[in-house]
UniProtKB/TrEMBL annotation:
Native species: Actinomadura verrucosospora
GO molecular function: transferase activity
Residue ranges, annotated region (Disordered): 301-320
Source species, domain of life: Bacteria
Protein keywords: Transferase
SUPFAM superfamilies: P-loop containing nucleoside triphosphate hydrolases (SSF52540)
Basic and acidic residues composition bias: residue spans: 307-320
InterPro entries, alphabetized: P-loop_NTPase
Name of this protein: Sulfotransferase
Length: 320
């Protein structure tokens, strides 16, 4: 049985850093956004083909071994097939269908067994006892809850939609910019789909707010580790300082390539730099979910120059 911690939610929410921190635990491999292994790493059609180790994905010993296990002598053909299956069954719109399969209400899609086989190959090649995938596609998380040979846990990470919209306003190395309306529409859709998974499988799901993670990195990471079945001390100090080594992320936020000493703290510059029209758009589109995730209508730091951290524990999905 392959154990997977799948991170869902919307981008620019600290999931890359969280995944790399978990990757510092013994027996854990953080694969980044595994969905893009085939598009970026093998077919070379994406925005970046670098592994987190600094080599091209196709040249990295770990990924060469994984691809050989699942694709044999024709990785190009296999990659094309994998991409077709992803498009046919693992987009956010497919979350409901994958949940129905996971609950045994309908036959499984071939995309699910293909994904399970890929995780099995990663576990065999890396020797890891836990694979962390920060792909953030709710349909993949839903599929894993019923995938053969997979023991899945889901981590739903949420960040203030105004913050993610401001982060998307600027291009970041190989990732293009995105407007506030589009970013917040994705934020809403991805989070609502993630909630569907939590309602279907409450014991498999944990919700973590970015703001709570940055306010208490060590405590938050300890809770995530317990949820994923990991023991030992979190690889971050009480002061939020950590040391990052080499990882094998296939893609994700460019910060995944960072190594060495880091300090985890909230990035609240958005409260001072975000244009008022963009903030109004993001607030309006996300309004139905702001209170649910404990975000104020008007960010306090916009008036006070700083945000008071919310030190309450991250909630387990399905709780009151």
């Amino acid at each position: 049985m392959v154990r997977v911690l799948y991170v869902t939610g919307w981008c620019r929410s600290g999931t890359t850093l969280l995944g790399n921190l978990l990757g510092e635990c013994g027996g854990v491999v953080h694969v980044g956004e595994l969905r893009y292994l085939w598009t970026n790493g093998i077919l070379g059609r994406g925005t970046n083909a670098l592994c987190g180790c600094g080599l091209d994905v196709a040249s990295c010993p770990l990924w060469k071994g994984v691809v050989a296990r699942v694709a044999g002598d024709d990785p190009g053909w296999h990659a094309e097939r994998a991409v077709r299956l992803q498009q046919a069954a693992l987009r956010t719109r497919h979350t409901g269908r994958r949940l129905a399969e996971a609950r045994g209400a309908r036959a499984g899609h071939p995309a699910v067994s293909a994904l399970a086989a890929l995780y099995a190959a990663i576990a065999e090649e890396s020797g890891a006892r836990l694979i962390v995938d920060t792909g953030k596609f709710p349909a993949e998380a839903a599929a894993l809850c019923g995938a053969p040979g997979v023991d899945a846990r889901v981590l739903h990470v949420v960040r203030d939609p105004r913050a993610t919209a401001e982060s998307w306003r600027r291009a970041k190395e190989y990732i293009p910019a995105m407007g506030a309306a589009r970013s917040t529409a994705y934020w809403t859709g991805f989070n609502l789909a993630s909630e569907r998974i939590a309602r279907a499988f409450p014991r498999r799901c944990l919700r973590l707010r970015y703001e709570d993670f940055t306010a208490d990195p060590r405590g938050s990471l300890a809770r995530v580790m317990a949820h994923a079945g990991l023991d030992g001390d979190p690889p971050v100090g009480a002061d939020g300082r950590a040391d990052l080594g080499v990882n094998h992320t296939v893609t994700g936020n460019p910060d995944r390539l960072r190594r060495g000493a880091v300090r985890i703290r909230e990035d609240d510059a958005w409260t001072r730099t975000q244009p008022a029209p963009a903030r109004l758009v993001a607030t309006a589109l996300a309004l139905p979910l702001l209170a649910r995730y404990r975000y104020p209508l008007v960010p306090a730091a916009a008036h006070q120059g700083r945000r008071a951290p919310d030190t309450r524990s991250p909630r387990r999905e399905g709780a009151a």
